[in-house]
Structures are given as C-alpha cells and as structure tokens.
Design goal:
The complex is a heterodimer of chains A (about 80) and B (about 140). With about 80 residues, chain A is an alpha+beta fold. Chain A has a single domain (about 1-75), classed as Beta-grasp domain (Ubiquitin-like (UB roll)). Chain A has 2 helices and 5 strands. Chain A is globular, with a radius of gyration of 12 Å. Chain A starts with a strand and ends in a 6-residue tail after the last strand. Chain B has one domain (about 1-135): Aldehyde Oxidoreductase, domain 3 (Alpha-Beta Complex), CATH 3.90.1170. Chain B has helices at about 15-20, 55-70, 100-120, and strands at about 1-5, 25-35, 40, 40-50, 75-85, 90-100, 120-125, 130-135. In chain B, strands 1, 2, 3, 4, 5, 6, 7 and 8 form an 8-stranded mixed β-sheet that branches. In chain B, about 35% of the residues are buried. The chains are: A alpha+beta (about 80), B alpha+beta (about 140). The interface of A and B includes residues 10 and 53 of A.
C-alpha cells in the first residue's frame, strides 16, 4: 500500500515537503508508517511516537491501515 | 452552534457576540485570543497560523458539540484564523451564551483549553530580527 502522508508546520520544514510517499506491506499499522518516516527524517525532527491522524481522527500506533486512508503526522499543536 | 476556520479576514468580535445573544440567556462570555508582541523576551512582529483545515474543522465542531452537551447550551460560536495575523489582532474568538454566568464562563474556558490541546493548528512566530520559529504547545 502506498500513502501520500501529509506533513505540517515544523515537520513539513524538516522534510522540505508538505507530503511524502510511503509504501508499506498490506496489513501495516500506524507505527509502521512512523518507522519508515523516521528512517527518512533528515534532521531527526520526528519523535518516536508523534501524533498521527488517520482520516481526520487521532490514531494509536496499533491502528491498522487500509488503502485510501488519509494519513497525517501532527506536530505539537499550538492554536489559540 | 457554529465553528469556522477563517482564512485571511479579521474576526468580527461584536458580530460573534451578537450571534449567541438571545432573550433566554442572562450571560454572554467572550474569549478573544490576540497576537502578543513578545514571546519569552523576543520581539514578535506577527504570527502565521497554519492548519490541517479539514481535521481542524472537525475537531472544532466536536469541541463545540461537547461543550453544548456539558454546559447545557446551544449558543456556542468558535472562530480561529489562519494565515498572517498582525499584532493585537484576534487569532481566536470563543463566544458562549447561557441562562447563567457560571456555565457561560466555565464553557468558554473549557473550550480554549481543549482547542489548545486538540485542534491541529500551528503558529510560526515572526521576530523583529527577521527570523521565524514554529512554537510548541507552551507558546
């Protein structure tokens, strides 16, 4: 499965992109995507367990992914 | 109840207050977050807000719904800016009306705390020396 993982704010700056293509085997989970991204992370900006959203909802590391899911890695939020 | 992520227009505080005002209510509580000219001693010239718009809209709606249930009112409006917000301009406005003042004040405070913890919005501070920095939750 290939996902165009969305990046925002400091994470987008660190990767120099607003999204990044990640390919993982079928049955992969949120934590697998994070592992791949951390391997590609030039500045070590991503923590071990960053916030991740799947289809606009915060997701845990063991959530299983399905083709077509919208995945986003969420830096520490700072609204207000 | 209404929530909105507002792109590049000022927030109209008076209009938002008027929107929640109703004859059955005895109180309107307003929270207005504004851009401050310093952060931890550094002179700030503007804040650039960035959002994961679809999810931010969803989380704001969810917070407003939870506030309505918890504080027994339907009169909640939340607006949050994105893009560049100048010094002293409003970045966020929360208005809650209720028959009684305590519920309105408690709800308004609860909403801003939830917003700061849950809504995927980020701020990049621009400083007088030309540099910029994404600020974390404490900022």
């Amino acid at each position: 499965m290939t996902f165009d993982v969305l990046l925002f704010a400091s994470y987008a700056d660190a990767f120099g992109a607003r999204s990044i293509l990640v390919t993982v085997p079928a049955g992969s989970r949120v934590a697998d995507i994070v592992r791949v991204l951390r391997g590609l992370d030039p500045d070590g900006a991503l923590p071990e367990r960053p916030l991740v959203a799947v289809n606009h909802r915060y997701a845990k590391g063991d959530q299983e992914l399905h083709e077509g899911d919208e995945i986003a890695v969420i830096p520490p939020v700072a609204g207000g | 109840m209404r929530t909105e992520i507002v792109h590049s227009r000022p927030l109209d505080v008076a209009a938002i207050a008027a929107e929640v005002t109703a004859p059955e209510n005895g109180a309107v509580s307003l929270f207005v977050g504004t851009v401050r000219n310093t952060n931890q001693g550094r002179p700030v010239t503007a804040i650039e807000y960035s959002a994961y718009s679809e999810m931010a809209e969803r989380e704001l709606r969810e917070i407003a719904r939870e506030a309505c249930a918890q504080f027994a009112t339907e009169h909640v409006v939340i607006e949050h800016r994105t893009g560049y917000v100048a010094l002293a301009e409003a970045s966020v406005v929360i208005a809650v009306a209720s028959p009684h003042r305590l519920a309105a004040m408690d709800a308004s405070r609860w909403i801003i705390e939830q917003l700061k913890q849950r809504v995927p919005i980020w701020k990049c501070e621009h400083y007088a020396d030309g540099t910029r920095e994404w600020v974390g939750q404490a900022g």
